[in-house]
Design brief:
Number of helices: 8
Number of strands: 0
Order of helices and strands: HHHHHHHH
Oligomer: single chain
Structural class: mainly alpha
């Protein structure tokens, strides 16, 4: 069996599709009809396309069930709300954890500064290898000892201003913590109107 081919089949197939939809111009419509009279391959394709089109026209069109679009829209809105809640919760959690770490660090520094401010000779009296700070520093190695000496030197030199700045920082952190508590997700005061 020899397979016949049409050199214009691609263009004619496009025109046939447009003709079925009623979108083919009068000049192309006439050219298509003339080609279909001459070409058996395209004529067979045209008949098959007409049969499929007629089958679709006879079949009832079934739409989505009643309320489908509303249910889909609600689900999309719920997913968006969940995503926003999750994002907001993660932002508050990470912010809270970082603020907690900063608060603890500042509280420790404040207590150390307060201690050194009340007892200015305490650091000078420490001998290498004596005291809790030196034992911890020696256990941590050279880096720990260097950090301990650096911190104690800063506290001795700048004790009062450092205590004031750290205290002020703790007040600012307390205000931020309060603001986060009021503005947390699910709070009734999150928009300022309720």
């Amino acid at each position: 069996m020899v397979e016949q081919r049409c050199e214009e089949q691609e263009r004619m197939t496009e025109w046939m599709s447009l003709a079925l939809d009623g979108l083919l111009g009068p000049g192309e419509q006439q050219r298509l009809e003339q080609h279909l009279q001459e070409c058996a391959v395209c004529r067979a394709e045209w008949q098959a396309m007409q049969q499929v089109s007629a089958l679709f026209e006879r079949s009832p069109q079934v739409g989505p069930p009643l309320g489908f679009a509303i249910r889909v829209e609600r689900r999309l809105q719920e997913k968006e709300k969940q995503r926003r809640r999750l994002f907001g919760g993660m932002a508050v959690l990470t912010g809270s954890l970082s603020l907690a770490g900063l608060t603890v660090t500042m509280a420790v520094l404040l207590m150390a500064g307060w201690f050194l401010w009340l007892r200015p000779g305490a650091v000078a009296d420490m001998q290498p290898g004596s005291g809790a700070v030196s034992q911890i520093a020696s256990g941590m190695g050279v880096l720990g000892k260097g950090a301990s000496l650096f911190l104690s030197d800063i506290l001795v030199r700048y004790g009062p201003p450092l205590v004031f700045v750290i205290g002020l920082g703790l007040v600012v952190l307390a205000v931020i913590w309060l603001w986060l508590f009021v503005k947390r997700p699910g709070s009734t005061h999150h928009n300022g109107y309720v």
